[in-house]
Amino acid sequence: MRLTQHSNYAMRLLMYCALRPDHLVRLADIAEAYDISCHHLNKIAQRLAHIGIIHAIRGRNGGIRLAKDPSEINVGQVLRATEENLIIVECFAETTNTCPLISECKFRKLLQRALKAFLDVLDDCTLADMVDEPECLKPLLGLTDNITSFMSEQEPPQCVH
């Protein structure tokens, strides 16, 4: 299974916003942190705003922020909303399938089970789970607010991978 960059960038955008809960985040800052196109992020932000995952405020002082608590944003739902389709083989698209084995194909059934298992794992995870170690993630993105003083007083945090 291969996901599009669109889904990957959507999750990165959401993780960044989750790490900055008290801020209105500029897409330019997210683009810089991840070294990705601001134009591409804008398309993703529009989609996420349309489905109610983020709020987008236009204008000079505008930006984006999460529309829900990170614990209420399901990774599986985000993936389903950002992927055009989850057709991993031709026979998943019944209207365009040309394979004559469709009704009896064990490979198709195996892939259907694999896709379900994949989505079940993502459905068990929230955005909050993805950012549950902010002290490890923030420095990697250049977000040092509230971490600089913590890190100067103690040993650097040990991050679980």
Automatic annotation (TrEMBL):
Q: Which SUPFAM superfamilies does this one have?
A: Winged helix' DNA-binding domain
Presence of the UniProt keyword Kinase in the record = no
Top-rank taxon, per record: Bacteria
What GO molecular functions are on record for this protein? DNA binding; DNA-binding transcription factor activity
Sorted keywords for this record are: DNA-binding
* Transmembrane residue ranges: none
Q: Which InterPro entries match?
A: TR_Rrf2-type_CS, Tscrpt_reg_Rrf2, WH-like_DNA-bd_sf, WH_DNA-bd_sf
List the Gene3D superfamilies hit by this protein, alphabetically. Winged helix-like DNA-binding domain superfamily/Winged helix DNA-binding domain (1.10.10.10)
Entry GO terms, CC: cytosol
Which PANTHER family does this UniProt record tie to the protein? Answer: HTH-TYPE TRANSCRIPTIONAL REPRESSOR NSRR, WINGED HELIX-TURN-HELIX TRANSCRIPTIONAL REGULATOR, RRF2 FAMILY
UniProt-recorded name of the protein: Transcriptional regulator, BadM/Rrf2 family
